[in-house]
Amino acid sequence: ADVNYQPGTVLDFGGDYEVTATVTSHSTAVAGIVSTNPSYLMNATLAGDNVVAVALTGRVPCQVVGTIRKGDRLVASDIKGVATVLDKSKYEPGCIIGKALEDHPENTVKTIEVVVGRV
């Protein structure tokens, strides 16, 4: 990663290194979410200044903003490293990160649990 991101940060492929925090709403370059406790860590021997575990599938915490209900599909928002609910009019294949496992009724940034992967 280009910096050492906190768990729950939504990442895109790109930046100066392999991944960087998302900044584009409904980005199709989305890579995953920084994990807290991966059950399997690919490339565990990878060395560098800012190596982060990126969840490609499973349950992980995720920073979100906006009104979100359990089961809502999540995408990158225009807030750095934060997800939001899918706007169907902006849908493009590859933009969905996962689905919410919790409600979030406010327009503030909060961390909730989500499921990522082929959902």
What's a quick, concise take on this entry?
The chain has 119 residues and is mainly beta.
Characterization of this structure:
- This protein is mostly beta strands.
- Helices cover about 0% and strands about 35% of the residues.
- It has no helices and 9 strands.
- The protein has strands spanning about 10-15, 20, 30-35, 55, 60-65, 75, 85, 95-100, 110-115.
- The strands form 2 sheets. Strands 5-9-8-6-7 form a 5-stranded antiparallel beta sheet, with no helix packed on it. A 4-stranded antiparallel beta sheet has the order 2-1-3-4, with no helix packed on it.
- A hairpin with a 5-residue loop joins strand 1 and strand 2 (about 20).
- The mean pLDDT is about 90.
Label this structure with key terms.
119 residues, single chain, four-stranded antiparallel beta sheet, five-stranded antiparallel beta sheet, mainly beta
The major sheet is characterized as: 5 strands, antiparallel
**Helix/strand class:** mainly beta
Evaluate the radius of gyration: 13 Å
Overall average pLDDT = 89
Strand order of the largest sheet: 5-9-8-6-7
Fraction of residues in helices? under 10%
The best one-word shape is: globular
Topology:
Elements: E1 10-13, E2 19-21, E3 30-34, E4 54-55, E5 58-64, E6 73-76, E7 83-85, E8 96-100, E9 110-116
Antiparallel strand pairs: 1-2, 1-3, 3-4, 5-9, 6-7, 6-8, 8-9
